[in-house]
Amino acid sequence: MPPARPPHPPVSSIDVARLAGVSQSAVSRAFSPGASVSPKMRAKVLEAAAALGYRPSVIPRIMLSGRSRMIGIVVGGLDNPFYAAVLDHFATALQTRGLQTLMMRVPHALSLDGALDQLAGYRVDAVVTALAVGSRQAASALSALRIPIVCFNSRLTAPWISTIRSNNRAAGRLAAELLADRGVRRAAWLAGPADSAAARERGRGFADGLAARGLLPPIVLAADDSYDGGYAAMGALMHREPPPAGLFCSNDLMACGAIDALRARGLSVPGDVLVAGYDNIPQAAWHGYDLTTFDQQAEQMAAAALELLDDPATATGGQSRTIPARLIERGSTSGLIT
Amino acid sequence: MPPARPPHPPVSSIDVARLAGVSQSAVSRAFSPGASVSPKMRAKVLEAAAALGYRPSVIPRIMLSGRSRMIGIVVGGLDNPFYAAVLDHFATALQTRGLQTLMMRVPHALSLDGALDQLAGYRVDAVVTALAVGSRQAASALSALRIPIVCFNSRLTAPWISTIRSNNRAAGRLAAELLADRGVRRAAWLAGPADSAAARERGRGFADGLAARGLLPPIVLAADDSYDGGYAAMGALMHREPPPAGLFCSNDLMACGAIDALRARGLSVPGDVLVAGYDNIPQAAWHGYDLTTFDQQAEQMAAAALELLDDPATATGGQSRTIPARLIERGSTSGLIT
DNA sequence: TTGTATGCGTTATCAC
DNA sequence: GTGATAACGCATACAA
């Protein structure tokens, strides 16, 4: 028994050739832009193709060329608008170049290699991920697949693995200086989950910046990487002690939660507390938050990733590009405390 | 000259067979779960495969089986958290079943057929889209592709095209009743873009519900389908006349904008104006908005779509399923106006 | 310009 | 349990 075919098999070039009374290669040529076909032949083929509803399959092309024109993208949850924006920009950029987006959603950073195994089976030309590659051991497993991989905001580079990063540490320093300039003497750092290297760098930069101004180290709050996490952490802090005058959050989602927690306790932002975040998600610009933040410029990150992948010399990995985060100053840090 | 191959061709089963000194079919069997291979043979093959970094390609399997195990999903912009959530749930559901997500992002609903042409070339097993199929003419073009298509919130069904809908009209009525029960005598409807059939139904239901209570028809505000659209439309209304006591918005994003516009004018929600939205995006639950809304239950919509596609009898289209929207009552409609 | 033949990497069938 | 072989749909080198 032959392998089970789908109930409605797609029309093949042979079907079209039969109907048009020509060879199968003629059909192929009629659909190939630069091929040598007489206009008459092309017309005959296209007519038969239209009658049957024929679409050339790219699958055999993948076998012949060894390139699928599909790029795998691995994301960890689109409930954070920043990741949704990254995916959005990336898919748009890929389509402009005639590439497809094979998307995988993974629950944890740990499942990255499992996802990559599957993507490798589909022979994706490259993989882009917002997830960090945790260990050097995981990296060598990925290197073994010999598929170009670009990570956003991961420190690590390796054969076949490149990195696009935001200048997290400098941004953290800048946040500290901004708050200090506004008169903040006592600041807090709302840290994300411990496994994010990028968030750690932002926190370190923030502490550096405070120290450079002769201020005390920040109160460090650990929280879940979400609106609720920011809300809960800020609420918990205020049970114990008076809130600091300045708050820097490892992302905007947490910052929005923190702001709402402060306001729920009757405090004003920026009247009583200045707040800054990171990512510049759309909600940061909403009038209810008007949040000062750092724009990671997702569009440029996507462009940089494709640039790395386009060039055979850099596609084999080991590259690192830094896209500077731009400070977006808004109302949440405009209150002047003196 | 043979066709240009990529600089680093993937390892094939023949390479593994050569290294292990076995036949190529033995390699295939070693990687097929239920095949008859001796443990010794399997071990030998797996060792050689690991040494070379071999991953079986699914591309030839697609050619033989006629099924790619890829589902195309066409979305129109992830800046709306609702669409991001739909995509998120869908990708998760697909992965649970071992299916891949081939994502396409299209600028306008008009480009749906262009996107489908490309997806057809990749021989996706089905297509799911949150975009509405505009005309019956467009539908017949899609039907010709003979690929199962599931549309969210489109009215139209056709051969190969099924629909998963929210009970928009009933929800609109319910919104009207809720506001009327709270003492609203004069209400407004913040309509989305004209091309959304779902939004139109919500508005019609809202008008129906107001009429059933003997109230005047709603003030209709046309706006862009976004936060800024809601903000601008609400702001413009207040330039002309006093705001209505109740507002129903065709989606949450616009509702958030409208709330911020009201507050920017010194009005309170829900103190002065009651507001309800649609979609139950995460931001609706944020404490700053606390927005009453209708949950479209994206997870169930995704499940229903897969159920339609799983059954060969329903995969060929013409089906319609309704997932009831659940009213989520929050603080934005809690003010009692008497 | 057009037709014929070959190969891409895998699975299924058949003979051993 | 194992190896040889056909087939999937298309693009290409070559022959006509």
UniProtKB/TrEMBL annotation, chains A, B:
PANTHER family reported in the protein's UniProt record: LACI-RELATED TRANSCRIPTIONAL REPRESSOR, RIBOSE OPERON REPRESSOR
Domain HTH lacI-type, residue spans: 11-65
Alphabetical list of Pfam families matching this protein: LacI (PF00356), Peripla_BP_3 (PF13377)
Highest taxon in the source lineage: Bacteria
Name assigned to this protein: LacI family DNA-binding transcriptional regulator
Native source species: Gluconacetobacter takamatsuzukensis
Keywords: DNA-binding, Repressor, Transcription, Transcription regulation
GO molecular-function terms, A-Z: DNA-binding transcription factor activity; transcription cis-regulatory region binding
